[in-house]
């Protein structure tokens, strides 16, 4: 096993601010994801029409990703993260208060687009602020987000069974945003770092081929994760005979694996060579997928999903770190491009798997997962050379 000299991760107030901003972001992401089936029932929408909300999220992420370099140059990273949170909350409130389909589609798109600029700007700031420990900080930030996001999905579910209804639970996002702004609104990374980024190389310079290979790996990893998020419950139901409602709990096993793996991965990233760790994480996801794909027993299916989530926990942080490392010091431009790659993956990956499922069945369609893993490993090895 390849190893590197241990690197120390120091969690100062600026680090915790970005961690908590990502936690607030997670309440939107997991909250609106949990709310979508409830919204579909309330409005009597077909699955295809309800799925347009995911398309709207992808479009929102692409548009704001294209605008992110300009926005960062104009107002700086600190203002971008708070502007993104403000816009994200506006989108969430549109979904909460809106009843017509165009309004909820717009709400999902705005929340996704504005939330993504907070996510990617925060990741770039962490990477710059922590230097060699940047990958560990990014992994740990995502661990905090996933952990808070699990709680958000339970809040939506609990509220849906009560008198006030699921829409009221969406207020948790603006309430947490306001609390964070009041308590840590003046905190940010040292000015010398953010200034150095803003006056760095011109954003118009071309990125290298290695950068786009890293972007392709990021695309594969995000597409893979969202395929599990949106279609794993369907395969559990098909394979085990569980009801759709019971099979949906399988996603909790995958998400729990994500949370546990990101906390552990933050420590591994300080001690292991990045390529070794990344390929190992993809191999673990492939092993978990094999158990999940072959199993007809609920317990084994859940175990396979948990192992898949454990491996997938490192995919996004490690892939984003590789994009940043290949950017030639242009972290803000790189994260903007990464946002576009990720948004395209969110829109294309689950859609393609669903289309394959309609044509050949969900079981056969899930062969797309090892194909994405193989492409990602190939991209990692090519980029390493």
TrEMBL record:
Major facilitator superfamily (MFS) profile domain boundaries: 7-385
Keyword Transmembrane helix: yes
Gene Ontology terms for molecular function: transmembrane transporter activity
Domain of life according to the entry: Bacteria
Pfam families: MFS_1
Keyword annotations of the record: Membrane, Transmembrane, Transmembrane helix, Transport
Membrane topology recorded in Swiss-Prot or TrEMBL: Multi-pass membrane protein
Alphabetized Gene3D superfamilies for the sequence: MFS general substrate transporter like domains (1.20.1250.20)
InterPro entries xref list: MFS, MFS_dom, MFS_trans_sf, MFS_Transporter
Endpoints of the signal sequence: none
Key word Iron-sulfur present: no
Localization: Cell membrane
Record-level GO cellular component terms: plasma membrane
Chain segments annotated as transmembrane: 16-39, 51-72, 79-97, 103-122, 143-164, 170-189, 210-232, 244-264, 276-294, 300-324, 336-357, 363-383
PROSITE patterns membership: MFS
Family per record: Belongs to the major facilitator superfamily.
Protein name, entry field: Predicted arabinose efflux permease, MFS family
The species this protein was found in: Streptosporangium subroseum
Taxonomic lineage from the root: Bacteria, Bacillati, Actinomycetota, Actinomycetes, Streptosporangiales
């Amino acid at each position: 096993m390849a190893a590197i000299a241990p690197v120390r991760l120091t969690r100062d107030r600026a680090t915790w601010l970005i961690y908590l901003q990502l936690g607030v972001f997670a309440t939107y992401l997991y909250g609106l994801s949990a709310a979508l089936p409830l919204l579909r029932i309330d409005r009597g929408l077909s699955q295809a029409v309800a799925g347009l909300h995911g398309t709207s999220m992808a479009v929102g992420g692409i548009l704001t990703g294209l605008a992110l370099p300009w926005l960062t140059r104009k107002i700086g990273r600190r203002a971008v993260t708070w502007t993104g949170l403000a816009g994200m909350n506006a989108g969430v409130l549109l979904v909460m208060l809106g009843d017509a389909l165009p309004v909820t589609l717009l709400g999902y798109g705005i929340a996704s687009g504005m939330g993504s600029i907070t996510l990617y700007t925060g990741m770039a700031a962490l990477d710059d602020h922590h230097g060699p420990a940047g990958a560990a900080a990014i992994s740990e930030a995502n661990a905090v987000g996933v952990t808070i996001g699990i709680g958000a999905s339970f809040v939506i579910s609990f509220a849906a069974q009560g008198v006030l209804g699921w829409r009221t639970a969406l207020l948790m996002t603006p309430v947490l945003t306001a609390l964070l702004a009041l308590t840590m609104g003046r905190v940010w990374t040292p000015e010398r770092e953010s200034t150095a980024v803003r006056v760095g190389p011109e954003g118009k310079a071309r990125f290298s081929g290695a950068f786009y290979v890293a972007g392709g790996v990021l695309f594969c990893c995000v597409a893979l994760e969202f395929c599990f998020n949106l279609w794993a419950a369907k395969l559990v139901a098909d394979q085990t005979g569980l009801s759709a409602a019971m099979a949906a709990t399988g996603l909790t096993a995958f998400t729990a694996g994500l949370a546990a793996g990101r906390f552990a991965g933050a420590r591994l990233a300080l001690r292991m060579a990045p390529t070794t760790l990344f390929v190992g994480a993809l191999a673990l996801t492939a092993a978990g997928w094999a158990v999940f794909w072959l199993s007809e027993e609920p317990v084994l299916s859940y175990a396979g999903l948990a192992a898949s989530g454990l491996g997938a926990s490192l995919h996004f942080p490690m892939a984003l770190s590789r994009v940043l490392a290949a950017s030639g010091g242009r972290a803000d431009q790189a994260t903007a491009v990464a946002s576009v790659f990720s948004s395209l993956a969110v829109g294309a990956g689950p859609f393609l798997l669903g289309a394959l499922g309609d044509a050949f069945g969900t079981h056969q369609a899930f062969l797309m997962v090892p194909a994405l893993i193989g492409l990602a490993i190939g991209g990692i090895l090519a980029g390493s050379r």
